[in-house]
Every structure is written in C-alpha cells, then in structure tokens.
Amino acid sequence: MPDSEANTAAFIRPRNRKGGGAFPKVRLMTLVETGTHAVIDAVFGPQSEQVLASRLLAALRPGMLLLGDRNSPSWRLWARATTTGAHLLWRVKNSMLLLPRIGTFTDGDRRELQGVGVSCAERRLRG
Predict the structure, then answer these.
(1) pTM of the entire structure?
(2) Average pLDDT, 10 consecutive residues per value, the chain (127 residues)
(3) N or C, fewer C-beta in 10 Å, the chain?
(4) How far apart are the C-alpha atoms of 76 and 67, rounded to whole Å?
C-alpha cells in the first residue's frame, strides 16, 4: 500500500525491533471454498484477525463447513458462528481448554468433548 498520510492515518504500520515498517499495512481475510478455491466473501482493514473473521460470519450458510486455524478460536467467535447454521471444525492450541473432557477411548488417543450444543474431538498423531 502506498506510503501516504491518508493511508498512515487509516491503517497500521507493521512493527519490529527496529521500529515501524516502511509502508502502512492492511489485512485481508477471505472465506474460500476449498475444492474450487472460489472466493465466497472477503474483508479487509486494519483490525485484528478476530475482528475480520467476525465480519465474514454473515457469508456463512447452513450446511457449510467452516475450518478454522489454531490462531482464530475464541469462545465469542465460536458462539457467533454457531448461529449461522454452518458446521464448525477448528484446530485449537493444546493450552486452550474450551470444554471439559468427558471420556477417553480405549486406544487412549481420542477424547470427546461435549457441551452447549457443540461436539469436538481430539486426535493425537503418533510418530
């Protein structure tokens, strides 16, 4: 993005140990269909990924499957996404405890979590 006073006022500059970046930065987040790579919706702005993701929720429809990466989950975003009727499958960090564990399968690898109308599964990969 061009380095102008208007862009600097509207967007953020990336930061590092040496100070601010050379150009203002705009974030772009897209909702894409994984098979065809068709763009369903896109938003951009200076906000955080959480804010941009919440703006994309309006494009979700019942029956869609929303995959989320391990840096996006939050209870608030999850709760809002469930109201769309879309199915949700999100990776979460090991340190993030969303719901209590209620059981362990006989192989010791899978555990099921349930509550508040959601169901999650965990799988450890060996190797």
Answers:
(1) 0.65
(2) 82 78 84 92 88 93 86 77 87 58 54 47 52
(3) C
(4) 16
